[in-house]
Amino acid sequence: MTAGQKRTEIKYGLNVGVVLKEDQPTGRLTYGKVQKILTNSATHPHGIKVRLHTGEVGRVKEIV
After folding, report:
1. 3-state secondary structure of 50
2. Is 50 exposed, middle or buried, given 0-12, 13-18 or 19+ CB atoms closer than 10 A?
3. For the chain, which residues score pLDDT lower than 50?
4. pLDDT of the residue at 61
5. What pLDDT score does 3 carry?
């Protein structure tokens, strides 16, 4: 599994790179700190969904 697919890897306050819904076609990453973990399952093939401190929601693709 790649970074961001396991819920146990994601912690509150962690710096991550996420792909926002509108950026899925391009794969552009947005960086920020995890405010809330939104995915309930232990793993997700496209990355764990989180809310950043900025309020943006996306799936984790990179842990900084």
Report:
1. strand
2. buried
3. none
4. 96
5. 83
CATH, range 7-63: 2.30.30
Burial of 2-28, coded b for 16+ CB within 10 Å and e otherwise, reads ebbbebeebeeeeebbbbeeeeeeeee
What is the predicted pLDDT for the residue at 2? Answer: 73
DSSP state at residue 23: G
pTM of the prediction? 0.91
Could you state, in order of their start, the residue ranges of all structural domains in the chain? 7-63
Phi, psi angles (nearest 5°) of residue 23:
-100, 5
Average pLDDT taken over every residue of the chain: 95
Neighbouring C-beta atoms of residue 63, cutoff 10 Å:
14
Tokens of 14: 């962690």
